[in-house]
Amino acid sequence: MSNDTLDKLVWVCIYAGLFIVGLGIWFVEHHLAAGVSLAVAGGALVALGGLLIWLRSRRP
């Protein structure tokens, strides 16, 4: 995987994760279990994006 592809994947993970977290927070009012599940899944995507940033910083 090239560095450019990794950079794009980082930002897709972070922005998609933040969107899903926001959607989960909004959805909690309507269905608690689904809202929490969405928020957790979005948080995991944001964490993956952070991990990929760290990985990218270690590559030449």
Briefly, what is this?
This protein has 60 residues and is mainly α.
Tell me what you see in this structure.
The chain is mainly α. It has one domain (3-58). Helix content is 87%, strand content 0%. The chain contains two helices and no strands. It has helices spanning 3-27, 32-58. α1 (3-27) runs antiparallel to α2 (32-58). The longest helix has 27 residues, at 32-58. The mean pLDDT is 95.
Helix/strand structural class? mainly alpha
Radius of gyration in whole Å, from Cα? 14 Å
Q: State the oligomer.
A: single chain
Gross geometry: elongated
Number of helices: 2
Order of helices and strands: HH
Give the percentage of residues in beta strands: under 5%
Number of domains: 1
Q: What is the helix fraction of residues, given as a range?
A: over 70%
- What is the residue-averaged pLDDT? 95
Task: Note the topology.
Blueprint: H1 3-27, H2 32-58
Helix pairs in contact: 1-2
